[in-house]
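In keeping with the milestone schedule agreed at the kick-off meeting, the structural modelling team has produced records for the first pair of proteins. Each record is given below as a sequence line and a structure-token line. The laboratory manager (R.T.) confirmed that both were archived under the project's standard naming scheme.
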Amino acid sequence: VRGHVELAEGEPSRLTLESRGEKVQVLGQAPQAAENQPMTREKVLKQLNKTGGSPFSFETLTAQIEGDLFLPVQALNELRRTGFQELEKKLTGARVLTGEGGIGAQSRSVPAKTAAPESQSVLTAFLEETAQLSPVLARGEISVVYLDADGFNPDQWRDIADRCHDRGKQCWLALPQIFRSHAQRYLGANRRLLCQAGFDGVLIRALEEAVWLKDLMEQENQKTSLPFGMDASVYGWNSRSAEVLASMGTSLLTMPWELNSREIEPVLGACRGLGMASELIIYGNAPMMVSAQCITNTVKGCTHKRGTLMMKDRTGALLPVKNHCSFCYNTIYNPAPLSLLGSEKLVGRLMPDRLRFQFTVEGTEQTEKVLDAFIGSFVYGRDVEAPFRDFTRGHFKRGVE
């Protein structure tokens, strides 16, 4: 395929594709003026060149970029995907519908072992501890970093966002899972630091935070509001809920922990139809309970000290319990992490825009091991050994009864 992309502020992004005498042109999200790190021509071309398991590859690809612009990575992915879909329709015609051989049949074949994931999803990493930051920054394959608002102090936000930008990564702030007066006071007191940090977006983890964020941007007279996405805890269970969340201005929807692959598929389809990016968690200790009743306070009194305890359940298993003291709540985690190693082909067929590593209790060394294994498998197609003994598939294959 020969391709050319045109980007200009306030104008729809435009991608022109030509192959075998056929030509298509598709429009996508309009870029905005860059406030921090403008995207470079090289980065745009590199992202569009990630054709993954599609039947196409670029023979030539050029770009025309007018000014210092910003366009989310998922918008570039959607522009490429839409263009390829339209080009495939022109090239295959009725053969796709009739099931005859030729190009249409070839487009449905996938090599047994590819050098890149079928969907070429963007990799993201959610961090709750500062020890997890350095290994994530060192990996060029990771495009987006989420900082837990409790795990990283407000006076660190700008410095870490700058470090992410220097390495070509987006940096988002993840708000708390329980949004009460504690959260309003804490975030309100640090609202200037939030607005001045240079974050590329905000991850909403409780629905009322979306309203709070909108009010904050208006109070601070921000010219452009921060994009926000919904975490798994907001529960985009089905296509109807995806429509409602999109109507609120959501740019990203994370698949709930509880859905299996069959239930996830229509939600992902709804996201594509609504122009909303989708994200799937492929690794991480799932929250079993989020509670405003502090276990530390119950056992020995409030210490005002953030940390992780171990709680033994009736079977003798030790469950990590983390105190989120800035917002005064606890999270009890599953002791075995969710791992979708071995499900790479199924994940590739689902084609989520983003794949997330959810780091919670890991230290630096374990973070590095997880990144090595999952990036090796999902990105480079290598046979890898899981860096943990116990793990769970969660609800990915069985769902909730």
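The second protein of the pair:
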Amino acid sequence: MTVPRAVAVVVDGPRVLVMKRFRRKGSSSECGLCELGREAGPECPGHRYAILPGGHVEEGETAEAAAVRELEEETTLRARIGRPLWTGYHARRPASYFLMTDVAGVPVLSGPEAEAQAPDDSYELMWAGPELFEELNLLPVDVREPLARLLEGQSSARTMT
């Protein structure tokens, strides 16, 4: 069974909170990103990309509750769901995206992501505007356009408190 993903979209004017990643597996055969990119060779070269905060929807949990929980676990930010944005797929898993509101705190990497920091597996929180989506390799690629449109509409509104 495929476990769905819930995603928290935290907007601050024309920027969104993203998690930069670097990940290298022992071999290209055990790396999903090598497989997607059709990397040749036995070794995983390592991948730099960014994602929006979020994670697995646990059994018995709603996608909304998972987005709120994952945001706090990964970033220490507290928030509530403002509204659903869209649905799609992230690494072949169904994903639900939610605009967060009443966001409180300062984003600080925490939880398993902070504990997993290593040369071959690193995380970094940052604010990014649409002009950085391609450079950061924001994944999944399908979120770039609707996210840019959302940020255009939010550029005069500030959702962080």
